Every structure is written in structure tokens, then in C-alpha cells.
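Renewal narrative, Specific Aim 1. Our central claim is that a sequence can be written position by position from structural information alone. The example that follows is taken directly from our test logs and has not been curated for this report. It begins with the C-alpha cells describing the chain, in the order in which they were read.
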């Protein structure tokens, strides 16, 4: 008779197998572990970027967000019908309404920086940011997209665990955290870099060493330090290959490493993004990229940094008692504690467990979203099947890919007065039709450049022309205010200059974007 025990499946692993499995689990977990001080620094960085963004936009608030500007609600509703009803900022075209919403966004950005009701404040900040972006997508670039993605990912991680009002009220902190949400937070920038490296590989310039040279020959985009690097072609080629290696090798440099080595690589990326910030006018992108690197700063980095902080500063850190009325636990925590004291401990335990499970589920979904739609964009597949294009495009990262542009352009507006003379619509006198000394100065902000690119696209044959016509009407009003005589017509020109990659300029080309009677 066969021994029954020998026929039973063996379910227990050997001690050696269990040890190996635990080692693998520990190694994987350590790769997706984030120091809570890094999460706190990320919170402060994101809040500061949100505040800076609000301040930066205020100067053009009337132009881009009100009915008195170049993009009134009527134009918005005609050009982006998919966003109708999704923007709080589109509820009114009045200036005071936009100013109020900007003020509210600024207040919540400050609250995020100090870490007061962090998750709630981050959620409201995200809603306000999405609303602002939906109101005028024409002024956005990849940095805006990455900012809202990072804010969403940060929302499901404990960014209020340290260095915050919430931390003082809680009284306890965890040194590190690891979850699907932190995995998504770490994977996101790697996906940005890897996808961009793949898209660049489809071009002819980056993997031949010429990408940086061509990119910096674009006088509209190149600023400050970038204006001086063109004199050193050998250095430009070195920088090109360093940039390509950082992009293509990001998975190994940032996800495979751990400890001090990971922190060193993160600092190298931060240094590269500081260089980008001082060389190229791409808006918030370098700042947000710097923020994405903060979670990669590991515990050894923060321990080393702490040794350089003078004790006189740490001794002055506030305590919970200094918060006054704010020192009380959040309303929901007080409600749970009250329920426990009334004998509903099982209910409160279930509520807390379900809350943690919900965050885990959201983290899993976000990680899948990042990987799936990034892959879709890389293989150039629309992946629609009922999925909104905007949702897929949230994970498209094509800055300077596949090749940097070999030309740049700026715009000029000419007004025809009732006496038949033509003048610069904004400044009077004759409209300048020659190449400026520094073409980057032709735009007040990068958002103006993005908006005028949308005007250019709208003015092309086969388009609805709404954005171009709306802008031309606004130019008419501005020209009427600028000149004593009545304005009969305005004409918007686009002036195109081939990039002087080899140091020589070709002839300037002028294109008419739109002519419109006033």
C-alpha cells in the first residue's frame, strides 16, 4: 500500500528557497522604497511650482482667460468642445472671476507647501490645475502635463508624513514607505526619459551627436547659458551624448540602483535639468523634472544632509503646541476616534482598512496607466478602442523628438489705418521684418509662444480658423487703443528663419497667417 503522505503535494518550500524568495522580495521592495523626507521635499517642490505657475500666469490673465482677451469663452467652446463643462475657469469670462480663482489656487499652493490637510489640499490643487489647463490648452506644453501627472501621483503617497503641519498634529512618522503608489511615482520619470530616448532614436540627429547643436541653434528657444555654448562644438557633442545616455539609461541608473548610488545618479539628473533650465526656454519643464528626481534621493542622502544643518535651526522647529487651534487632529480622525469610544471599533477598523485598500488599488491602476499608455505612444498606436485621446496623450513625451527643429519663427502684427498707412499694430511705426538680435526676446513668455503657434495652426487651410480670428479681433482692439486713427484691417505675419547650424543665416521668409477686417 502506497504511503499517503508521499502522495500529498509539497506545499512547504525549503528554508533555502524561502530565504532566496525573501531576498528577492526585499531587493524589489528596496527599489520602490521612498524616504518620507523625500516625499516631503517633493510636496514642497510641487507646491512651490504651483505657486510660481500662478504668479507667472497673472500677467497674462486677461489675455488668455477672459472675454476681453485673445481667447474668449466663445472661441474656447468652439475649439475645444471636448473640454466644455470641465473647467471652473470657463464658468465666466469676467476678469474678477479669474483673479479670484487664481488667488484661491495660490492659497492652496501655500497650504500644500506647509502640509496642512495635505491630501485634501493636493486634491483641490489638482482640480484647480486641471480646470485652468482645460480653459486654455493652447498655452500648455509638456511641463504642464507632467506637473498634473506628478501631482496626481503624489496625491496617493504620504507626502504629508514629514515636515508638515499634518506631521506635527499626528506626532509619529515612518522613515520610509513602499507601495504601488511609490512605485508609480518612481516609474513615471523613467518612462518619460525612456520614451523620449526611443522617439529620438527614430530621428537622424541625436544618435549621431548633432541633436544638442541643432537644438541650441534655435534662437527662439535658446536663452542665457545656451547662447554661449554654440561656440564650443566639441562640448556640444559631449553634452549630446551625455543627454542621450541619461535618457536611454534611466531605467538602470534610477530603478536598478539603490542607496548612495541611486542618490548620486538622481543628483546627476538634477544637474542636467538645471542646465536645461538655464539654456532652453521650455517653461516649467525643467523645474518639474527636478521635482521628479526628489523621490530618488535615498536615506543616506538625507542623513548626510542633516549633518550639515546647524542645530540652532533644528532647535527652532515648531512643535504641535505652537500650532494653536491647528494642532487638533483632522475632523475625520476625530470622527473615527469618537466612533471607537462609542463601541464602533469594528466599523472604524473596516473603514480604515478599506481606505488603505482603496489607495493600494489606485496605486495599481496608476502604475498600469503609466506603463500601458507610455507603451501605446512609443509604438505609435492610437490605442483608442473607446479610450479618449487626451487620456492617452497624458503619457506622450516627445520634447525635441525625433529631431530638434531646424528653423524657428516669431510673429508680427501689422495694422492698416483708415488713411491707408500701415503700422506695427502694438508699438506703432513700421513693422520690423528683419531678424532680431535675440529672437527669444520676441516673446514675452513661453506661453505667448505656445499660443501663437496655436494661432498659426488655426490659420492654416482646412482648419476652423477660430483661434486665429479671435486673436486677430483682439489685435484690432489693441491697435485701436494704440493709434489715434481708426484701424481698418490687421494682418498677422509669421517670420521664419532657418537655424544657423553651421553659423550662416539664410534669407528670412515671411508668411501671412491671417488678414482680418476690424
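The sequence written for that structure reads:
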Amino acid at each position: 500500500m502506497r504511503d499517503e503522505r508521499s502522495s500529498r503535494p509539497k506545499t512547504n518550500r525549503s528554508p533555502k528557497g524561502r530565504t532566496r524568495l525573501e531576498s528577492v522580495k526585499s531587493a524589489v521592495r528596496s527599489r520602490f522604497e521612498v524616504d518620507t523626507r523625500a516625499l516631503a521635499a517633493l510636496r514642497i517642490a510641487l507646491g512651490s511650482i504651483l505657486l510660481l505657475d500662478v504668479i507667472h500666469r497673472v500677467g497674462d490673465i486677461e489675455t488668455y482667460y477672459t472675454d476681453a482677451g485673445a481667447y474668449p469663452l466663445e472661441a474656447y467652446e468652439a475649439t475645444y468642445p471636448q473640454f466644455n463643462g470641465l473647467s471652473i475657469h470657463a464658468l465666466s469670462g469676467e476678469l474678477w472671476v479669474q483673479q479670484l480663482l487664481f488667488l484661491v489656487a495660490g492659497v492652496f499652493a501655500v497650504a500644500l507647501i506647509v502640509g496642512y490637510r495635505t491630501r485634501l489640499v493636493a486634491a483641490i490643487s489638482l482640480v484647480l490645475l486641471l480646470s485652468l489647463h482645460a480653459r486654455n490648452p493652447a498655452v500648455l506644453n509638456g511641463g504642464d502635463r507632467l506637473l498634473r501627472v506628478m501631482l496626481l501621483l503624489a496625491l496617493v503617497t504620504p507626502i504629508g508624513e514629514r515636515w508638515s503641519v499634518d506631521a506635527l498634529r499626528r506626532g509619529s512618522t515612518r522613515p520610509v514607505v513602499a507601495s504601488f503608489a511609490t512605485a508609480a511615482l518612481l516609474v513615471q520619470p523613467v518612462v518619460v526619459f525612456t520614451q523620449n530616448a526611443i522617439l529620438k532614436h527614430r530621428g537622424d540627429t541625436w544618435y549621431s551627436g548633432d541633436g544638442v547643436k541643432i537644438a541650441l541653434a534655435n534662437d527662439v528657444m535658446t536663452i542665457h547659458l545656451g547662447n554661449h555654448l554654440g561656440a564650443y562644438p566639441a562640448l556640444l557633442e559631449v553634452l549630446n551624448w551625455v543627454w542621450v545616455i541619461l535618457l536611454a539609461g534611466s531605467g538602470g541608473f534610477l530603478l536598478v540602483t539603490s542607496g548612495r548610488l541611486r542618490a548620486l545618479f538622481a543628483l546627476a539628473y538634477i544637474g542636467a535639468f538645471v542646465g536645461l533650465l538655464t539654456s532652453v526656454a521650455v517653461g516649467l519643464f525643467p523645474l518639474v523634472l527636478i521635482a521628479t528626481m526628489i523621490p530618488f534621493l535615498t536615506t543616506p542622502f538625507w542623513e548626510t544632509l542633516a549633518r550639515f544643518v546647524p542645530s540652532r535651526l533644528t532647535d527652532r522647529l515648531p512643535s504641535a503646541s505652537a500650532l494653536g487651534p491647528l494642532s487638533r487632529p483632522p475632523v475625520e480622525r476625530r470622527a473615527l476616534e469618537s466612533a471607537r469610544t462609542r463601541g464602533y471599533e469594528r466599523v472604524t477598523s473596516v473603514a480604515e482598512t478599506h481606505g488603505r485598500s482603496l489607495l493600494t488599488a489606485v496605486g495599481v491602476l496608476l502604475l498600469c496607466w503609466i506603463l500601458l499608455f507610455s507603451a501605446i505612444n512609443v509604438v505609435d498606436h492610437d490605442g483608442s478602442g473607446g479610450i479618449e485621446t487626451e487620456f492617452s496623450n497624458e503619457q506622450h513625451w516627445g520634447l525635441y523628438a525625433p529631431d530638434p527643429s531646424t528653423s524657428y519663427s516669431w510673429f508680427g502684427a501689422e495694422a492698416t489705418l483708415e488713411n491707408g498707412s500701415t503700422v506695427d499694430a502694438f508699438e506703432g511705426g513700421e513693422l520690423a521684418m528683419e531678424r532680431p538680435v535675440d529672437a527669444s526676446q520676441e516673446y514675452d513668455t513661453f506661453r505667448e509662444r505656445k499660443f501663437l503657434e496655436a494661432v498659426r495652426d488655426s490659420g492654416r487651410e482646412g482648419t476652423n480658423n477660430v483661434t486665429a480670428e479671435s486673436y486677430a479681433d483682439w489685435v484690432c482692439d489693441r491697435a485701436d487703443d494704440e493709434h489715434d486713427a481708426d484701424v481698418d484691417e490687421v494682418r498677422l505675419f509669421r517670420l521664419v528663419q532657418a537655424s544657423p547650424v553651421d553659423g550662416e543665416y539664410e534669407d528670412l521668409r515671411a508668411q501671412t497667417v491671417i488678414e482680418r477686417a476690424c
